[in-house]
What does this fold into?
Amino acid sequence: MAEQQGTTRKPRSLRDKGLAAGLKVVSRVLDDPERAKRVMEVVSQVQRGRARLDQTAHRVLNAGNIPSLEDLERIGRHVGALRREVRRLKTRLEAIRRRVENG
It folds into this structure.
C-alpha cells in the first residue's frame, strides 16, 4: 500500500494555530506604516507607565518602611551567609573543645 505524499502531516496544535493567527493579525497591522508607528508609540507609553508605576511603588514602600522584594532577597542572602559562618565557627569550636578535653 503506497502512502500519499503530503497527507501525513501532523495536526497542528491549538498553540500553533493561535500563534499563526496572531502573527497574521500582527503582520496586517504592521503592514501599514502609520499603524506600525502608532503601535510602537502605544508600546512605548506602556513601558514608560510601567517604569513610573515601579518608581511610585518603590517610593511608597520606602515611605511606609516596608522592605521591597530586592531588600528581602538581599537580607535572605545575608542570613544564609551568616548561617554558613556560624556552622564554620561551630565546627572550629567543637574541634578546639575536643583538643582541650583530650589534653
Observations:
- The longest helix spans residues 69-102.
- The mean pLDDT is 87.
- The two ends are 90 Å apart (CA to CA).
- Residues 67-103 form one domain.
